[in-house]
């Protein structure tokens, strides 16, 4: 099992996701002789997991069942142990697209935090790219390194335990993209510029407050970054209801059966085109957006370092 390659069967040492429902899942480290308690009873790793196919339905000791899923960065984001605030898949997908990440990309990131974004970046840049991730909190840096090893992606990532604002990323002119999720990103913009390739690249900074965004934009401008854009990714909930709308009078053409697909044999069905035309109104599903868009996490400020 690796977070960057799919394997069919569950093996000793794998990290698997025990799925009880969309609102209830957790990661488990598969071990010979290991046991995991669920509300449906015990899962015995040696007999219930090892050798079984990922995606299998596993019956627990009390008769209830769960699915065992292959890990992905998205499932990891939903289930990882939180050591810090983390980035979620809505922001991560926008970051991946706007930083133009792809297999082979070299990326610098700080801070590593709980490694939520790191796992997604690593999966995207594999198999030939690399992530340099900088975290100044020693235990967080060590824990992230441990998890990258457990998830068999250690060859794709270098963790550095240092202050990115003072010491930068420890690499120069190699990165295609830089990502910052730290409280004072404006202090790291100069280091980000040095880490990016001479021919240029993309940068993104995540900040929860607009005041931080303003300072970061000024620093980006001072360092010659262009195309500075701040985006926020929010989910908008639509209230769907059925409404009656008048339909236009299509006159004789609509009643004329020739070559239109209009089926006059279905005249008794009020939902057929003929039936609708006769009633003069039709029922439509209409989506009304709720005014408030909840779920603010932060603003994503993107910019470009150009050669000129
Ligand atoms: N993006 C991460 C994720 O998705 O899991 C979460 C990052 S967390 C919000 C911010 C991290 O940045 C913390 O772990 C903190 O220790 C680290 N940090 C803050 N300032 C830093 C600095 N100057 N240099 C390196 N790391 C820093």
Q: How do the strands line up in the largest sheet?
A: 9-8-7-10-11-15-12
How many structurally independent domains?
3
Biggest sheet details: 7 strands, mixed
What is the tally of beta strands? 15
The helix/strand class is alpha/beta
Number of helical segments? 10
Shape: flat
CATH C-level name of the largest domain: Alpha Beta
Average predicted confidence as pLDDT? 91
Kindly identify the CATH topology of the largest domain: Rossmann fold
Element order, helices and strands?
EEEEHEEHHEHEHEHEHEHEEHHEE
CATH superfamily of the largest domain: Vaccinia Virus protein VP39
Q: Percentage of helical residues?
A: 25-40%
Beta-strand content: 25-35%
Gap between N and C termini: 44 Å
Radius of gyration: 27 Å
Written account of the structure:
The chain is an alpha/beta fold and 308 residues long. The protein folds into 3 domains: 15-71, Vcp-like ATPase, Chain A, domain 2 (Roll), CATH 3.10.330.20; 75-234 and 297-306, Vaccinia Virus protein VP39 (Rossmann fold), CATH 3.40.50; 238-289, no CATH class. 26% of the residues lie in helices and 28% in strands. The strands form 4 sheets. The protein has a 7-stranded mixed sheet with strand order 9-8-7-10-11-15-12, with helices on both faces. It has a 4-stranded antiparallel sheet with strand order 2-1-6-5, with helices on one face. Strands 3-4 form a two-stranded antiparallel sheet. The two termini are 44 Å apart. The structure holds S-adenosylmethionine.
